[in-house]
Write a structure and sequence with these properties.
The protein is an alpha+beta fold. The chain folds into 3 domains: 2-161, no CATH class; 176-324, no CATH class; 326-397, no CATH class. It contains 11 helices and 16 strands. The strands form 4 sheets. The protein has a 7-stranded antiparallel sheet. α1 (10-35) packs across α4 (69-88) and α2 (47-60) packs antiparallel against α4. It binds zinc ion (ZN).
Length: 398
């Protein structure tokens, strides 16, 4: 994606929001259709059938016909892709699109090619039903077949072209690095470097908490509530901007410095899934604690660190040079002697080998194992109980 900041006029903003509303409406309609499926009903209508239904609906409803057909069709196509991603296991279940939170639509085909450069710093794009909208030329316009217009919660408009960036050439030194993605630090390299993704400062976090408390006291639909919501959105946007910036810089740096980058093949989706409710055997209808709150805290940490995004960007920037390694036992195996024992952890931060006495930062030790590709050791002992924090795959299967 290469993203540009867009500066629509107030009238254009209103028109863009209409398109966003159409896209959101169709997405939610498709989601409803999909979610209503039961075993005794036939197949859920696919993309082609939904497009046919859309044509019928456009003929019947004036307000739908007033919107852009491309925008409406692309919303259905996006949903189709989301369902495919869900079934492939790479993404979570598609969710409802909410006003003010998920504002955006996609344009593709010949309509996406209408982009003009105005000056050294400005260009404009012809958005159907809206007209020419100016955007800031912060980089070269890529050769892309589609673009997406989005509005974040702070009301900033963006234009993003779906283009995979030019791969960064390998340094050719034959050097290899292992990256362990931890919760305490964002990433540890086998070279011993510890990288942490910047989030909000302590002061900003305190402010966020204060605002959230204030929001809880606001009446729904009040003006004050709206103001507090915007202030909260600003803080979230700031954290998101910092995270994305860190991911871009880190992925570029790794792609430039190393020929091969090994990462743990950790599926973010299963790890961040909500824990199953545990029914109480003694009192039917009641539930035992399932540590959902604890897991929610961990999930926040994972998502805040932008794991998935980092690997995705690495794969874009260094295609064919990113290797995924099964991370089982990497946190318990000694990177010097290869002995694997769950007791080799002094605590979350320090690794201390029970066999040879090697002592290192736990995340760096894991990163060295990942670099060696020594994921599953042949000499491993059966671990009696594994921390669910470190070994999600094992916890899930065992
Ligand atoms: Zn050892």
């Amino acid at each position: 994606m290469s993203r540009f900041r867009m500066y629509p006029s107030p009238a254009q903003q209103a028109a863009l929001l209409e398109l966003c509303r159409d896209a959101r409406y169709l997405w939610n309609l498709a989601l409803e259709q999909w979610a209503m499926w039961t075993r005794d009903k036939g197949a859920t209508p696919g993309f082609a059938e939904q497009c046919r239904q859309l044509t019928e609906a456009r003929a019947a409803f004036e307000w739908l016909r007033a919107g852009s057909q491309t925008v409406q069709q692309q919303a259905l196509r996006d949903f189709d892709q989301a369902v495919k991603n869900f079934h492939a296991g790479t993404h979570r279940r598609p969710t409802w699109r909410k006003a003010g939170r998920h504002e955006g639509f996609r344009i593709d085909g010949s309509q996406a090619a209408r982009v003009e450069k105005l000056s050294r710093k400005w260009a404009r794009v012809l958005v159907p039903k809206v007209g020419w909208v100016r955007f800031r030329l912060s980089r070269a316009i890529p050769d892309a077949k589609s673009y997406r217009v989005t509005c974040d919660r702070m009301g900033r408009w963006y234009l993003a072209f779906a283009a995979i960036p030019e791969p960064i050439p390998a340094p050719g030194t034959g050097e290899l690095v292992g990256v362990d993605r931890g919760v305490t630090v964002s990433a540890a390299l086998s070279t011993g470097e510890l990288l942490s993704c910047p989030g909000l400062s302590d002061r900003e976090q305190a402010r966020l908490k204060q605002l959230q408390r204030r929001l809880a006291r606001c009446r729904r639909g009040s003006k004050r509530r709206g103001r507090v919501q915007v202030a909260i959105a600003k803080l979230y946007a700031r954290a998101g901007d910092r995270r994305k910036d860190w991911v871009e810089k880190t992925s570029t740096d790794l792609a430039r410095r190393f020929d091969v980058i090994r990462v743990e093949d950790l599926r973010v989706a299963p790890l961040t899934r909500r824990p199953k409710p545990k029914p109480d055997p003694e009192r039917p209808g009641r539930y035992l604690p399932n540590r959902r709150r604890a897991k929610a805290g961990l999930n926040r940490g994972i998502l805040a660190n932008g794991w998935g995004l980092l690997v995705q960007r690495l794969e874009h920037k260094a295609p064919g040079r990113v290797e995924k390694v099964n991370p089982a036992y990497t946190s318990q195996t000694c990177s010097v002697c290869g002995h694997c024992a769950p007791g080799s952890r002094e605590n979350q931060a320090v690794f201390w080998c029970v066999a040879c006495g090697h002592r290192a930062n736990a995340d760096v030790n894991a990163a060295v194992n990942i670099a060696a590709g020594r994921a599953v050791s042949a000499r491993r002992e059966t671990p009696p109980r594994v921390s669910s924090k470190r070994e999600p795959q094992l916890a899930a299967s065992g």
